[in-house]
Design brief:
This protein is mainly α. The protein has 3 helices and no strands.
Length: about 90
Amino acid sequence: MSLNRFHLTVVTIWFAALLAVLGLRIVMDVPTSIVEGMGLILLGCAPALILVSVFRGAPPQTIAQVLYDAEQDANAGRDALTRLHDRKEA
C-alpha cells in the first residue's frame, strides 16, 4: 500500500484539528501544565504517525507476480522472434 493523496489529506486534517484543539485550550484559558500539553501532543500525533508508517510504500512483489512477469517477457520475446521469422519467409 502506498501513501496516496487521501491519506496525506487525512494526516493534514488530523494535525490541523489537533492544533485547533490546542489553540482553543489556550484561548479559553484552560489551565494546562507542560506535561499535560506534551501528553496531548504525543497522543494526538500517534494516529497520524501510525498511518504514515503503515502506508509508507508499496509491498514487495509476490512470487506469483514475479513468475507472471517473467512468463510475459518470455512470451513477448518469442512472439517477436516468430514475427521476424514470418517476415523473412514472406
